[in-house]
Design brief:
The chain has 289 residues and is mainly beta. It has one helix and 17 strands.
Length: 289
């Protein structure tokens, strides 16, 4: 049951990598599949000094298919594909006379996708499993749409994220629980700065293994080794030298032993060149055991 909920943890409150979060692998020939909707709307952003500034109300919406499949008991393949993404900007309205100065606009299409492989180095059943994963970011999304080129469904660059994962499950009385941690380096191209990423999370079970509550924190720190002119502004989710520390919460409920639903939210307690509002997620998942 623990591995199911870890594989169900799809929420990415600020659109960071969703793949390969825990050290547990899917069994050979088994899989996990999820359809989810993630969105955020924001009228302020974090500047490069970490302060909040207002901006034209902007919305980002991702409809995503996520899948994990065990090639062996140690090697899991992962696909994360936002097959429909939408980026919107509201009308710019005069504060003097209420007239529309600039019409709002939107773009639709596929977003940037991820494919990954995760290999668990420890034997199945190890008390503290350890795994490595490699995630490839595929630039399928439009990176410069709209009249001014500031509507985006992706960042236009091919990146490679190498991460280490560790964790453990345990009992709190009669209740199942777990913790997990990850750390890695994201190598970016097209003049974007490379990144250091880390995360912590913990989960606890309720309602006889049907409901899991997860608390997590994810962080991205830039190496500031890219070209300052690349990327977009701080009103985009795809700005260069973006940084954040993002706590989040997620609830996952199993309706049947294989079918479940999830909901979650995450925001930033620290940010630089990112949106200033939380992201939300709802989804339905199928655990093929």
């Amino acid at each position: 049951m623990l591995k199911r909920i870890l594989f169900a943890a799809i929420l990415s409150g600020l659109a960071i990598s969703l793949s390969a979060q825990g050290p547990w692998a899917q069994p050979q020939g088994k899989g996990f599949f999820k359809l989810s909707e993630w969105w955020t709307r924001f009228d302020e952003h974090f500047t490069d000094q970490g302060r909040r500034d207002p901006n034209l109300t902007t919305g980002v919406y991702n409809t995503t298919l996520y899948a994990e499949y065990g090639l062996t008991d140690r090697l899991t393949t992962i696909v994360n594909f936002p097959f429909f993404s939408r980026n919107t900007m509201n009308n710019l309205i005069s504060e003097v006379n209420g007239e529309v100065l600039v019409d709002g606009e939107a773009i639709n299409g596929p977003g940037d996708a991820e494919i990954a492989a995760k290999y668990t180095l420890t034997q199945r059943g190890a008390k503290v499993p350890f795994a490595l994963s490699l995630t490839l970011g595929l630039p399928l999304g439009e990176d410069a749409g709209g009249r001014l080129g500031n509507l985006q469904l992706g960042d236009g660059e091919f990146n490679q994220l190498l991460q280490a994962h560790i964790g453990s499950s345990f009992k709190l009385g009669n209740t199942n629980a777990y913790w997990a941690a990850l750390a890695g380096v994201n190598n970016r191209t097209q003049g974007f700065s490379d990144e250091f990423r880390w995360g912590l999370e913990g989960g606890i079970n309720f309602a006889q293994d049907k409901l899991w509550a997860i608390l997590r924190i994810r962080a991205v720190h830039s190496f500031f080794n890219g070209e300052t002119a690349v990327g977009n502004t701080s009103t985009s989710l795809f700005a260069n030298n973006m940084e954040f520390i993002s706590p989040g919460i997620e609830l996952n409920y199993y309706i049947t032993p294989t079918l479940g639903v999830s909901a979650g939210a995450a925001g930033a307690v620290y940010g630089q060149l990112i949106a200033g509002s939380p992201g939300y997620s709802v989804g339905v998942f199928l655990d093929v055991k």
